[in-house]
Design goal:
- The complex is a heterodimer of chains A (171) and B (510).
- With 171 residues, chain A is an alpha/beta fold.
- Chain A has helices at 2-10, 23-29, 35-41, 57-64, 100-109, 120-125, 156-170, and strands at residues 45-51, 77-79, 88-92, 115-119, 147-149.
- Helix content of chain A is 36%, strand content 13%.
- Chain B is built from 17 helices and 16 strands.
- Helix content of chain B is 40%, strand content 17%.
- Chain B has helices at 9-14, 33-44, 95-104, 194-198, 203-210, 218-233, 239-267, 271-292, 314-338, 340-346, 354-360, 364-368, 377-381, 400-424, 479-486, 494-501, 505-509, and strands at residues 18-19, 23-24, 28-30, 48-56, 59-66, 72-78, 83-85, 108-110, 153-158, 170-176, 179-186, 301-302, 305-306, 441-448, 453-460, 466-472.
- Classes of the chains: A alpha/beta (171), B alpha+beta (510).
């Protein structure tokens, strides 16, 4: 293990340079964030991920944000285990009818000020699963959404661009 | 792949029934209650294992697989009275499947041992979406969890929203101090009604839907769907397509196994392995995107072949990936093997009784870590694996450590397979037109995903659309065994056991 750790000390980092915040995301966020909230949060945002019925593809790419290439924490984002500790809910999936109440309760348990980011084509409008008896179809049908990051699934760069846009507005 | 085998006891039992024409590649028979009961007796005695159990209005289908002869077969029982003789009564692995049939189709397992709803949480606007849908007139009673009695027991309810970036489901632990006395799972939270959405869908839309039953197995699901369609329509696809499909399937296996090995170690608080394994996984995904245009390879396998050909620079990209994996992976294996504090957590943790694994016909890593050598690439097998040499690693300890080692060995096998595929990749077209039978046809396929064997059964209407399609995730036969594996372990080892199984919620809830 020591050899591996030493080698890592010498190696140049794998981490990619930060992308520019997404233009469309910035436009969607607009000026909806008040100054008081920005001051209170500083530059650090705690994210609670909620799977509201995704196929787990979005989860795989959200996981990838934590790997050495994307290293999400360098921007002040970190994933937390409880909605009580969260500033941002990152919601995936077409919101299944069976998950609706759990999502509403997670939102209610998140302290203000809070932002909701709907991830993936499913989170936007139900995606391929829209129209059935078992899906509500779109996160915004259930809780207010501040930002959509489309894609099936969005790749880590697209996720980063969206989250960085959120950070710019909040900062 | 011959569908007939005269030595098969399964086919002898099934053969009494009416053979269904236009069902390929294996036979389906409409059977009487007597034959149905003989099928159940064979399951209970372990003469064959359960591959799937699903329903449609007025009929239940049971797919089984016989060990010695490797023959799959389907028995279909008409149930005009709205019920069928319970399979779960004699063969516990069928219990959740028949509860799902009761919820979705409305056919009741007569004298079933567990009649609680499973996927239906009493929240849908209708009942029996795949049968004769009715509007619920009264709410379902609260879900009755199994009772636990005894001194000093306490319960820990977990979920559906979990603490990590994972899928939702509910776990009800009953513990005596630190030791888990019982775990009861409550799933169905991510039920999306996929089977209902598939009814009447075009092949193009259906392929996209089935490719999203479980996102981490998108290649394997798309492959199983495509193979079932090609079997039903008797379509031969170009040779190059077979090889590219296998290439994608092995890339998917590689990426997922790398992620899982790291994640298991991370759940033992050994984050270094996760950091390195996540880099390997990312490199596989990047190579996949560079070669086929999608990191997870979604929608790349389609009925008739593959949607994307390997570009000219694809071979050097993949060879570079192989070289990098061969350089970076062995030191990680050594690190895992030589870290006593990590082994202390994984060895003898979450040990699963191999007889349960046999009984449940549990496939994938979990089965092979418990001595069950089943691998759908070998048996019943499909091209090009019949022309490729590879080993199916098997261990017998059946603990978390064994499941990590099976993944390690399978990573090595996948690297060798990809190398073999690149060497022998035939040239030519990658996609052909499907035959249009112009009548009702049925097909079935069994494909080995990274998690285990995926079954897709379908019926195509005369106009070529999907009349009925049932995808069965390997997790159906793995989730119940997690309840058995955790028994007697400490609560703190649950994440470790759970990750070593890595069952799919979405694939199961459908």
């Amino acid at each position: 293990m020591r050899k591996l750790l030493l080698q890592n000390g010498w190696r140049s980092p794998l981490t990619l340079p930060a992308p520019a915040p997404s233009e469309s995301a910035l436009a969607e966020l607009g000026a909806q964030v008040d100054r008081a909230a920005r001051r209170r949060l500083g530059r650090s945002l705690a994210i609670r991920e909620v799977d509201a019925g995704s196929c787990n593809g979005c989860e795989l790419e959200i996981h990838a944000l934590n790997n050495a290439f994307y290293d999400l924490e360098r921007f002040g984002f970190h994933f937390v285990a409880s909605p009580r500790h969260a500033d941002v809910l990152l919601v995936t999936g077409p919101v299944t009818v069976n998950m609706r109440e759990a999502l509403e309760r997670t939102y209610a348990a998140t302290p203000d000020p809070k932002w909701v980011v709907a991830v993936g084509d499913c989170g936007r409008d139900g995606g391929v699963f829209a129209g059935g008896y078992a899906c509500v179809g779109g996160v915004a049908e259930v809780i207010p959404v501040d930002l959509h990051i489309p894609g099936c699934p969005p790749n880590p760069m697209q996720l980063l661009e969206g989250l960085l846009a959120l950070l710019q507005v909040v900062r | 792949m011959s569908a007939t085998n005269t030595n098969s006891a399964l086919l002898t039992v099934l053969g009494v029934g009416q053979p269904v024409t236009g069902h390929r590649p294996w036979s389906r028979f409409v059977v009487t209650a007597e034959t149905w009961n003989a099928l159940l007796a064979g399951l209970a005695k372990g003469r064959w294992s359960l591959l799937g159990l699903w329903g449609e209005p007025g009929m239940v289908h049971l797919a089984a697989h016989e060990f010695e002869t490797g023959t799959p077969g389907i028995g279909s029982l008409p149930c005009s009275a709205g019920e069928f003789p319970s399979v779960g009564r004699w063969h516990p692995p069928a219990q959740r499947l028949e509860r799902a049939i009761a919820d979705l189709v409305g056919l009741q397992p007569a004298a079933g041992p567990d009649l609680r709803p499973w996927l239906d949480h009493g929240r849908w606007p209708l009942r029996h979406p795949l049968g004769a849908p009715t509007t619920p007139t009264e709410a379902l009673p609260p879900y009755p969890f199994l009772p636990t009695e005894g001194e000093s027991l306490h319960q820990i309810p977990v979920g559906p929203v979990h603490a990590g970036i994972i899928e939702p489901g509910h776990f009800r632990f009953t513990a005596n101090g630190e030791a888990v006395v019982r775990l009861e799972e409550r799933l169905g939270y991510v039920h999306k009604g996929i089977e209902s959405l598939l009814n009447g869908a075009s092949l193009e839309r259906a392929a996209r839907l089935v490719g999203r039953v479980s996102g981490d197995s998108t290649v394997a699901y798309a492959l199983a769907f495509a193979r079932a369609v090609e079997a039903a329509t008797e379509t031969e696809i170009p040779a190059r397509a077979h090889w590219l499909r296998a290439l994608m399937a092995e890339l998917e296996r590689l990426a997922n196994h790398c992620g899982d090995i790291g994640a298991v170690c991370n759940d033992a608080a050994f984050a270094l392995m996760l950091a390195h394994c996540a880099v390997l996984r990312e490199q596989v995904l990047r190579a996949s995107a560079a070669c086929f245009g999608h990191r997870l390879l979604m929608d790349c396998v389609v009925p008739g072949g593959v949607a994307v050909d390997l570009p000219a620079d694809g071979v050097p990209i993949l060879r570079a990936l192989l070289a990098e994996m061969r350089r970076a992976f062995p030191p990680l294996v050594e690190l895992y093997d030589n870290t006593a504090s990590l082994q202390d957590r994984t060895a003898n943790t979450g040990t699963l009784d191999p007889t349960l694994v046999q009984q449940f016909g549990c496939g994938g890593v979990i089965g092979r870590a418990a001595g069950r050598a089943f691998d759908a690439r070998r048996e019943p097998g499909y091209p090009p694996y019949d022309q490729l040499e590879f080993e199916v690693p098997v261990r017998r300890e059946s603990d978390v450590n064994a499941r990590v080692w099976i993944r390690i060995r399978e990573v090595e096998q996948s690297l060798a397979l990809i190398e073999g595929i690149l060497e022998r990749l035939p040239s030519g077209p990658v996609r052909g037109a499907l035959n249009q039978p112009g009548r009702l046809v049925e097909g079935m396929a069994l494909v080995e995903g990274f998690r285990g064997d995926i079954l897709v059964w379908l019926r195509l209407a005369a106009d070529g659309t999907v009349a009925r399609c049932h995808p069965r995730d390997p997790s159906w036969f793995q989730w119940p065994l997690l309840e058995a594996a955790i028994e007697g372990n400490i609560v703190a080892d649950f994440p470790l056991c759970n990750k070593s199984f890595n069952c799919s919620y979405s694939g199961h809830d459908l």
